[in-house]
Amino acid sequence: MALNYAYAILYNEASDALILAGLDPYAGFLHTDRSGKQSLTYDYSDTYKPLIDRALLTPIDEKPFQQQHQALTYQARREIATRVLRALQTPIRDTGGQRRELREHIQAYAWQLAKTLRTRQQYHAFTIGTY
Q1: CB 18 within 8 A of CB 44
Q2: Can you tell me the distance from the alpha carbon of 122 to that of 73, in angstroms, rounded to the nearest whole number?
Q3: How many CB atoms lie under 10 A from the CB of residue 62?
Q4: Alpha carbons within 13 A on the beta-carbon side of 13
Q5: pLDDT tens, 30-53?
Q6: Could you give phi then psi for residue 118, rounded to 5 degrees?
């Protein structure tokens, strides 16, 4: 449940970046193109999921995100959102040497994806360099 909640925040960020770059978040490459599914958003955001996963890791002695009635509590959702937003603001260097916040990488690589689709060049997805 925690991952699904965190990914929803990531999907929103990725979808906004794709739209700003002039791409249709519903047109997919890897995920099946289905009506009402943001296939390109899901495809595009897969690159960033490991960094979101890392943000949710908790020490072994820390309590996991609490649930009540088979749903995350308000405090758990708040903690997840805080961690994801902090991850989106974390400066990260990509393998090209660019150091910027994860949110900025998401936006920049969306523009790169749009450019490569328009010019039919090869797309090089975001890969992490060093922190």
Answers
A1: yes
A2: 44
A3: 8
A4: 26
A5: 656 666 788 999 999 999 999 999
A6: -75, -30
* Biggest alpha carbon–alpha carbon distance for the chain: 51
Give the domain ranges of the chain.
2-119
Nearest partner of 48 among 79, 82, 112, 94, judged by Cα: 94
pLDDT in tens, 52-88: 999 988 765 577 788 888 899 999 999 999 999 999 9
Give me 49's structure tokens. 């999921």
Tell whether pTM > 0.85.
yes
Q: Would you say 18 and 10 are in contact if contact means Cβ atoms under 8 Å apart?
A: no
| CATH, range 2-119 | 1.20.120.920
| Separation of alpha carbons 13 and 16, rounded Å | 5
Q: 118: which 2 tokens?
A: 């328009």
